[in-house]
Amino acid sequence: MNDGRRKGLFVAAVVVLAVLGIYLTTLGDGSGEVGTADPAAPGATRTVTAPPVAVPSQVATTPSADFDVYSYLPLSRDQLGAAADLARRFTAAYGTYSHDDAVGRADRLKAFTTVEFGDDLTRTVTSPAAVEHDTADQIVSKGTARLKSIRDMSANSVVVVVEGTAEITALSGAKEQIEDYAVTVVQVGADWRVYDLQLAGSGQDGDVTP
C-alpha cells in the first residue's frame, strides 16, 4: 500500500470517529438518558418528564364533619334513637318483677307493646305454671338493660339487640342472669311499640313485617 492511500484511509478513519463522537455526545452522557446535554448549548436536547399519574386511594377515609349518614338510612336520627330507647326500657322492665305481682308485671309490659304482643306476654307471665314457679322460690328480680347493636331496620321497624341483666333474689339463692335479646320495635302511628322479643342467639333476627 502506497503512502497516499494510507493517508487517505487515516483521514477517513478520523472523520468516522469524529462523527461517532458527536453522535454519542448528543445522545447523552452514557447513563442511558436522552437529552442531558447542557440546555444552553446550541442544538441541545431537553428532557421532558411526564407528570406522575395519580392513583386513587383504595383505603377508606373518614368523611367530612358535614357528612350525614342518616340521610342514607330509612329512619332519621330521632326515629332510630326513639326506637332503640324503647327497646332498652322494655327489656329492663321485662327483667323487673316479683312473685306476688304477675298481673302488675303484665300491665307494665303492655305499656310498651302492640296489643297483640301485650296479650301474648300477659298469657305467658300470668300462666299458672309461671306463677307457681316464682311463688315457690319467692323470686324477686330487678332488671337493667343496655343497647348492643342494631340488627336490622326498615322504614317502619327496627330490630335492636339489647343485653338484659336481671339481679335475682330467691329462696334458692341470689344470682345474676344476663341474656341478649333481639327486640323488634315497630311504628304505630306516631309512636313506637315493641312487636316481638326473642333470644338474640337463637338465630331469630326479629320480625320486621308486622
Can you summarize this structure?
With 210 residues, the chain is of the alpha+beta class.
* DSSP strand count: 5
Low-confidence stretches: 206-210
Net shape:
elongated
| Structure classification | alpha+beta
> How much helix is in the residues?
25-40%
CATH homologous superfamily annotation of the largest domain: VirB8 protein
Rg computed from alpha carbons, rounded to a whole number of angstroms: 42 Å
Oligomeric state of the chains in view: single chain
Order of helices and strands: HHEHHHEEEE
Q: Using the coordinates shown, work out and report the CATH topology of the largest domain.
A: Nuclear Transport Factor 2, Chain: A
Mean pLDDT: 82
CATH architecture of the largest domain: Roll
Major β-sheet annotation: 5 strands, antiparallel
Terminal CA distance = 114 Å
Strand content: 15-25%
